[in-house]
Amino acid sequence: MLYQYTAVNMEGQSSSGSIEASSMEVAINSLQNRGLIITFIKPTKEKGGLFGGLSASFGFFNRVKPRDIVILSRQLSTLFEAKISVLDSLRLMSGQTKNLRLKSVLTEIVEDIKGGSPLSASMGKHPDVFSPFYANMVKSGEESGKLEEIFRALADHLERSYELASKTKNALIYPAFVVITFFIVMILMLTFVIPKLTAVLIDSGQQIPIYTRILIGVSDFFKQFGVFIMIGLMGGAAFMWRYSKTPKGKMAISSLQTTIPFVGGLYTKFYVSRMTDNMETLLSAGVPAIRSLEISADVVGNEVYKKILTDASLEVKGGKSISDSFSRYEEIPMMVTQMVKIGEETGKLDFMLKTLSKFYKKEVDTTVDTLVSLIEPVMIVFLGGAVGILLISILGPIYNMTAAF
Predict the structure, then answer these.
(1) Cα Rg, the chain, nearest whole Å
(2) Backbone torsions φ then ψ of 149, nearest 5 degrees
(3) What is the DSSP string of 227-243?
C-alpha cells in the first residue's frame, strides 16, 4: 500500500512524499530509519486505473509467483557478478519489477539494509515471498562471500522445482477438468432435458425399455432431490476445505496424495525429487546437515515428508545417521536410503543427493508422459461409452415411436 507522509529531518527541514509498504507500522519504521520525524502519515490509493486498484486491493491478483522469484534471483546474480552493491542491486530490481507486492517487499528490504540489517535477515521477515530455504541460502552466501553464486544456484533450483511442479499439476488438471465438465453436463441433462422427453415417451403409450426406465428414474431423483444434493455437496466441500486447514486434515490429504491409485506413485517421486534437490542445494551451499533437514521439512510441501524430515533432524541430533532414520519409513524408497548411506560413508552426500534428484525428476517426467498417454484413450472410451448409453436410452424409444407412425 502507498502512504503519503510529511516529516522533519534532524536539521529541522520539512519534507513530504510517499512510501510503499505492507502496513503503516512498516512505513513508519522505514521513515524513522532514514532519520525522519513523522508529523503526518495516511494511506492513499494506488495509481493505475481500475485494474491497478483491483490488483492492489486483492492479494490474489498481486501475489508473488514462483516465476517472479526465479527471475529476481537470476538478475540479482548477474548484478552481483558485475560488482554492483547489494543496496544498489535491490533498488534497481525494486524499480524494475511490475509486481506491487514484490516491489513493496524489496523497498522494505532496502530500508532494513540501510538500517544495518543483513540481506538474509531482511528477507526472512517476508516468509510469504522468500521461504526459509531461500533466506538460509542467502545467509550462507553472506558468510562465504559468494552471493552471486548462491543466487545463481537459487535461480537454477527454483526453476527446476517450478518446472517439476508445473508438469505434475498440468498432467492432472486436464483430466480433472474434463471429468468435472462431463458430470455437470450430465446433471443438467438429467434435471432439465430428460424430464421433457419422458413426458413425450409416456404420452406415446409404448413399452419403455428397462434401460430407459432406469435413466428416467435417475432423472426423477435428481429433479426431486437435486437442490438437496447441491446443498449437501456444497456443505461437504466447505467442511473438507476447513478440515484441510487443520493439522489432521493436512496430514490426511498428504497421505492420500502418495497412496491414491494411479497418481500416488507420481506424487511420491515428485516429493522425493523435491526433498533430495532441496537438501543437495543447501548442503552444497555449506548449510549443516541438521539445518538442511529442518529447512527442507519446511518447504517440501507435504506433511508426511515434512514429518519424516523433522524426525530425521531430531534423530541426527541424537547421533543417528540420516540413512538410518530414512530406513524406518516406507515412503522413502530403498534406493534413496542406500545412496544416502553411501554418500555419508564416502563424504559425498551432496553428490549422491544430486544424483537422486536428477533420477527422480526423470522418473516424474516419464510417469507424467505415461499417465497422459494412458488417460486420453481411457477418457475417450469412458466418455464415449457414457454418451452412447445416454443416446441409446433417449433416442432408441423415440426412434421406435416414430417408426410406429
Answers:
(1) 29
(2) -70, -40
(3) HHHHHHHHHHHHHHHHH
Tell the residue number behind the cell numbers 521477515, with chain if given: 125
What whole-number distance in Å separates Cα of residue 341 and Cα of residue 349?
Answer: 8
Taking the C-alpha atoms of residue 215 and residue 259, their distance in angstroms, rounded to an integer, is 35
Question: Measuring CA to CA, which residue among 153, 226, 158 is closest to residue 195?
Answer: 226
User: E strand or H helix at 48, and its extent?
Assistant: none
**C-alpha 35: how far from its chain's center?**
40
Quote the pLDDT of residue 276.
94
**Cell 508473488 maps to which residue?**
64
For residue 129, which of 107, 145, 152, 144 has the smallest C-alpha distance? 107
Angle between helices 264-284 and 289-299 (to 10 degrees): 140
> What is the CB neighbour count within 10 angstroms for residue 400?
15
Query: What span, in angstroms and rounded, lies between the C-alpha atoms of 375 and 179?
Result: 11
Q: What is the pTM of this model?
A: 0.68
What percentage of the chain reaches a pLDDT higher than 70? 90
Count the residues in the chain: 405
Write down the H helix ranges in 145-262: 147-188, 194-204, 210-244, 247-259
Kindly list the distances between the CA atom of residue 280 and the CA atoms of 287, 312, 353, 354, 395, in Å, as whole numbers in the listed order.
Answer: 10, 16, 5, 6, 62
The burial class, CB within 10 Å (0-12 / 13-18 / 19+), for 199 is: exposed
Question: What is the C-alpha separation between 270 and 268, in angstroms, rounded?
Answer: 5
**Who's near 124: CB < 8 A, 6+ residues apart?**
130, 132, 135
The pLDDT of residue 46: 47
Q: Which domains does the chain have, with CATH numbers?
A: 2-44 (3.10.20), 64-146 (1.20.81.30), 147-405 (1.20.81.30)
Look over the chain and give the mean of its residue pLDDT values, rounded to a whole number. 83
Place of cell 524489496: 106
Structural contact between residues 196 and 220, judged by C-beta atoms closer than 8 angstroms: no
The confidence band for 21, taking pLDDT boundaries of 50, 70 and 90, is: low
Amino acid found at 301: G
Q: What is the pLDDT of residues 114-130, one digit of tens each?
A: 888 899 989 988 888 99
